[in-house]
Amino acid sequence: MARHKQTDTSEPRKMTDTEMGGDLLTVREVARHLRVDDTTVRRWIKSGALEAVALPHSGKRCGYRVRKNTLDALFNTGTPSTV
């Protein structure tokens, strides 16, 4: 006789921050955290000083998302010399 795993469908499963995209920040959110202008954050991303994920785009301006871990690492290492 085979046993089947029972799943509880009475309550919806809560999504983690990673699944909801909670670990990705917009350029504007990063700029607010660092107290700089959006353009400065974009310049850092384009120069490679700040790691980011480029979003697909069809216009002039590319959209970016910065992982929260990357921003946290900036705060944990003190004042970054490359940024």
From TrEMBL:
User: Which InterPro entries did the record assign?
Assistant: DNA-bd_dom_put_sf (IPR009061), HTH_17 (IPR041657), SinI_DNA-bd (IPR010093)
Full protein name: Helix-turn-helix domain-containing protein
Q: What is the originating organism of this protein?
A: Dictyobacter alpinus
- Bias-annotated ranges (Basic and acidic residues): 1-17
Taxonomic lineage of the native organism: Bacteria, Bacillati, Chloroflexota, Ktedonobacteria, Ktedonobacterales
**Could you give a GO molecular-function term held by this entry?**
DNA binding
**What ranges does the record give for the region Disordered, renumbered to this chain?**
1-22
Short name of any one Pfam family annotated for the protein: HTH_17
Span of domain Helix-turn-helix = 24-76
